[in-house]
Structure prediction request, 175 residues.
Amino acid sequence: MIYTVAVLAASIVYFIYAYNTYPPIAENETFLSEIGEGFGEIGLWALLFIYARTLLKLLMGKGALARRILPDYSPPAAASIFERLLCFLNRTHVYVGIATVAVILLHIVMMGIPLDNLFFQAVLVLVVWQGLFGMFLTWRYSPKELKKFSHLVHAQFVTGISLGMFAWFGHLLID
Ligand code: HEM
Ligand code: HEM
Prediction:
């Protein structure tokens, strides 16, 4: 909560600064940017989908990492519908994650606006960050230390909260 409020406060300060400093950018509707908007919407839903899994996991008190990432893990027959859902989400996370990063990068490229506000620069860094450390986490040859570090900086809400906040304020700014 404290972190979220701090990010919110910093965003508001920078928003006011940027709003009064940068000239407005002209709306450029091209064929590519129309498709790019679609990618933005898909990216938004994909992020909500990813963090819904984390919420579900927190609600269900699931912890052990090893069990979750075993490729052939399947829930016991009597598992509840939520446990089955969670198991499905866990098994598909890597693919959903890769698709999400790709879709958001496509969105950014296709909208074709200069990346001169800090919000969008930070969003780009955070998306690449999630993708990169997710990859190290998945890659079988990552050294143990790197895996540990990757888990620490990938599997949490800290980047997600900033990502959501910065993307929201960034769009508000260009609007
Ligand atoms: C987490 C990352 C992002 C998500 C989930 C996202 C999502 C969206 C959504 C849902 C829209 C509205 C589409 C519509 O009006 O139909 C949009 C529009 C747009 N996005 Fe993004 N976006 C992200 C990052 C970025 C970044 C980094 C840029 C900077 C290049 C960007 C540039 C734009 C532009 C120029 C528009 C069109 C203007 C507008 O409708 O406000 N987006 N985005
Ligand atoms: C924007 C993209 C991504 C976001 C927002 C994201 C978010 C997360 C979060 C919040 C967790 C913790 C899950 C939990 O404990 O509930 C997690 C775990 C994990 N992520 Fe990602 N991730 C993304 C992309 C990726 C990618 C591209 C990969 C692999 C190439 C990946 C691999 C993993 C792995 C291996 C775990 C740990 C095992 C697990 O919890 O299933 N992620 N991710």
Notes: The pocket of protoporphyrin IX containing FE (ligand 2) is lined by residues 47, 50, 53-54, 57, 68-69, 90, 93-94, 97-98, 100-101, 127, 130-131, 134-135, 137-138, 154-155, 160 (CB under 6 Å). The chain has two domains: 28-112, 114-175.
